Amino acid sequence: xxxxxxxxxxxxxxxxxxxxxxxxxxxxxxxxxxxxxxxxxxxxxxxxxxxxxxxxxxxxxxxxxxxxxxxxxxxxxxxxxxxxxxxxxxxxxxxxxxxxxxxxxxxxxxxxxxxxxxxxxxxxxxxxxxxxxxxxxxxxxxxxxxxxxxxxxxxxxxxxxxxxxxxxxxxxxx
Amino acid sequence: xxxxxxxxxxxxxxxxxxxxxxxxxxxxxxxxxxxxxxxxxxxxxxxxxxxxxxxxxxxxxxxxxxxxxxxxxxxxxxxxxxxxxxxxxxxxxxxxxxxxxxxxxxxxxxxxxxxx
Lengths: 174, 116
Hints:
Chain A is of the alpha+beta class. Chain A has helices at 16-40, 152-155, and strands at 107-110, 113-120, 123-128, 137-148, 158-160.
């Protein structure tokens, strides 16, 4: 009975020329890795068309401060964030009572919803971005009888009746 | 409006002052109806929640009713406006009041009325 054992690298016949090329290639990869480590220690400054790196210092030379995809002046979004399984953007929530001065167009988030700076007749003001938390919404309900003064039960729902108390026919009075 | 003693008008209003416009006009012994969007005020009122219980002072949504002539009054509510959080998965059902929602709470207290 024999058992196959994995061949060691030294057991495989190697062309001396190929081994030299592999050695050179490995050296090139190693040199690249060293360069990458050295580059990571420097401040990242992305030129136009290069990758924008979050968490690093980036600089664009054109008038567009930041463009990720799309042509200048096109309809494509300036910045697109994608998360297939969760939120795509996090805005640090400030205290609900925060009332710092915002410039027109600036947005600050609070624990009760985002606030934006707007031009209100020449004055810059903060106003809330509408959310379901702050938006008045119509609610349609099945008709509900609130008051019927024809019956004693109905009149009992009046919490502060008129001093005149209505007449003998159980009608309200002015 | 049911069975007004004479022709007149009825005004439903949130208070405190009676507005100069009527919500509905009626003739003597007429039964007439109208619909209106009506604001509410919030006031402290004394409410007895059950037979034999002591009255409690609570804050409630209040509407006031004033008639210019003696008459019976019937008021029905068919909807409300309210702020409140609607979960994303229920956003398609905003036309219904969910139990425990601010709108449901508003409607629960909506039935307390004041006449003048």
